[in-house]
Request: fold
Amino acid sequence: MRKIILATTLALIATPAFATGKVKCDVAEADMKPRAELEAQLVGDGWKVKKSKVDGGCYEVYGTLPTGENVEAYFDPATFEKLYVAQRGKVLFKKGE
Amino acid sequence: MLSEYLNRPLFFWFVLTLPGVAMLYSYATGVSDAMDMLHPTGETSARLLIIALMITPLLQLTRGAKWMRWLQDRRRYIGVAAFLYGLAHLVFYVIDMGTLQAIASEIPLPGIWTGWIALLLMVPLAMTSTDAAMRALKRGWKRLQRLAYPAVVLTLAHWIIIHNGLTAALVHVLPLALLELYRLIRFLRKAPQHA
Reply:
């Protein structure tokens, strides 16, 4: 019993962290529009963009909404459709909800 | 000879600061900005807090193995390091947010106030980590140090809510949870004998 618990504990400690994708996008690379274009569009809409990257196939943008909230937001890389917006884990927008 | 050096608190502190040195180097050279620093500082703080809390149940499980007692002697350094990484986490959050107004506006968010309270709970723990404080507080010291448990629970909540996902946080906390469960079962089994 003790050995099982000890072994399980050690195995769990060794488990590497997983990548967490809140949203998944499945877009062919050829169909992806440049990320800079999305950033420019958002800035035009009044956002402040801190940085962006690709996460789960989507474009993920860190920035500030025109209303002042610091958010992470996911967009479709082909259409720039907004998929998910969250402020410190509080979901402000999710497509289809 | 060598083991004498390795057993010194200074060496243990050196090991505890290594991840921080790597993080600060990355920040100083511009590879990481303040926002990038949030994850490594927070995760290191949480890991150290979890490790500190795992020591007692692991001591029971290993029946006081020598290497566990070695670690137990250094538990307070692990705890203080957890607090200092937590403090660094806050400093980079403040830098990233930029204004007090922006910081204040996020306090009502569950993902944020859980982090604030977890860190605040660690302040008295870090401040009473000296031998003098331990002597002065006598039995109260141990009671006070139990604040580490609500601190780790709030840290877990902070982690889960901020990421809006369970995986990363649970992977880290599960070993501790399992050990606490073992401790509880052990306690419940023993209890009737003492009655």
